[in-house]
User: What shape does this take?
Amino acid sequence: MNGPIKLAWKYIIYHKYKSLILVACIFLTALLPIAIKILLSQFNQKITVRADSTPAVVGAKGSSLDLTLNAIYFKSGTVDTIAFSEVERVRENGAVAETPVLAIPIHSMFTAREFPVVGTSLDYFAFRGLSLQRGSQFTTLGDCVLGGKVAQELAVDVGDYIISDRDNVLNLAGDSPLRLNVVGVLGESRTPDDLAVFVDVKTAWVIQGLGHGHQDLNQESEESGKLISKSKDGIVASKAVESFIEITPENIESFHFHGDISDFPITSIIAVSETEKDDTVLEGRYARDSSIQFTKPSDDVRELMSLVFRVKQFFDANAILIAISTGLLLFLVMLLSMRLRRREMETMFKLGCSRNTIVQLQFAEMLIIFGVALVFVSVAIWGVTIISGDIVESILVS
Amino acid sequence: MIEIEQLRFRYPRSDFLLKIPELTINPCEKVAIVGPSGSGKTTLLNLIAGIEVPSSGKIVVDSHELSQMPDARRRDFRIAKIGMVFQQFELVEYLDVRGNVLLPFAINQSLKLTPAIRLKANEIAEQLGLGAKLKRRSHELSQGEQQRVAICRALITNPKLILADEPTGNLDPANKHLILKMMFQQAAERQQTLVVVTHDMGILEGFDRVIDFEQFRIESSVAKSRAGKPSSFDRGNTGGGTP
Assistant: This one.
């Protein structure tokens, strides 16, 4: 077999373009379904783990999957908001809970440098087991803590700042960019938390425009042009009043919220009950609610994945058909090649080569072509396996 | 070297019939077989080489009766004992000169490729003026050079018999005589028997004997009656090319 293999190898090298095309055909036919299988498996594993680690989510009525994705992957999407007061309702759980339910608010509506800005409470870090790599937790309005990858990708660190993105550049009356002071950077957890900018929920409301800071108007007169009217009942400011886009020790006192904070919006609440009974009670309470829903992320994600795997079955069938087509094409190429090489084979036969050896020669060629394609596929799969986590993460977070 | 008795051969589904009552070619003899196209010259070479098997009769080459050998043994015998040269050279395009010369060792496991064989390939190529062209592929060689490579390939196993089918058919006059001279020289040096099929009457000088194949076939019955005398003629008797 040594001789035929050497001859086959020399033939392949001599006809390198033809051989490369054959290798590419096999490579692409094999790689695509395998890579998708790996990515899907990673996707399933990551989303399931994340969902399983989040016992329950409370949020506005609508798609429970959207709500789950908002709470665990910070996807703003089409999720409606609920009032902040709901956090307290969940915590008390109708005063029947054996121990208070841990209720973590999530406000995920905005981005900073395209990374989601997540308004939450400090409980979130303990709940997710996230620890600071450097710096400290947010303590003041305008502070933020960066996920490990955010700091790495934006090359910002403790002491630097990032500016929140404007939600809609055409909406001048809407949210305004806020300079967020980086006070801490989290260690990498290989979860969506690596790709988030965490702020206190009140800072998120400032970004949303529900709270703001500006010049002290009590000291201004109507002649300054900054006031429209000033009376005992109140002050009406003009557009000339300068609003702060940065919260500093000097101006922090001027920041205030208009309205009742308990009515302010959040997108979801992560609810962690101590006991199954508390969980059931909480679920029961929201089952009858017309505007708020209670959902278990693990159920939503399993439903999603069952749908994904059903779709994948069609893809698998397609992949099999493509593999058969490729196989037939390769067979055709081999037959044509045999016809083209008839004289060469005839000469070999006349010199003293057996028909069996000639078959071995053809077989060795296909073996080498398949072998080389297999090596490429293996290397590609190795590469896909290594980066699949990041790919899935970016798909889930983006 | 070659003894043929009562040979009959017919291709399947063909009217062609080759009959050779008796033919002997002696060791170290240089024999030319001439005759018109379709007279069976190439078929005879294929029969002597064991590529084809006679319908009846006996072919003995170097004391081995080919018609009694199984297919695998005939192949092993052919690759080891017989060197073949073809009109179209039949070099393998994806191999360089050295690869083509050593081709018999790659296609039959009964031959073992050793460092000594590789050295010998270099030596033969050197002798035939191809020493500097061992790395070249066939399309980078002239026709004369290609045929020299084919001769090297035929010589590499050190066979006792060289069968050449129109070896000069595709060569210009200068290369024609050069190639023949080389073949005669190599055959003489290695004490090989040389059987050359040709229809080129201009190259018969130098052969020990010329067999007119057409005449041979027509007079096969006469030849049979000539006990121990093959239906061939000495070069001196060729006259107009037929006895």
Q: What stands out?
A: The first strand of chain B starts at residue 2 and ends at 10. Chain B touches chain A through 29 residues (CB under 8 Å). Chain B is about 35% helix and 20% strand. The beta strands of chain B are 2-10, 17-25, 30-34, 56-61, 64-65, 82-85, 161-165, 193-198, 209-212, 233-234.
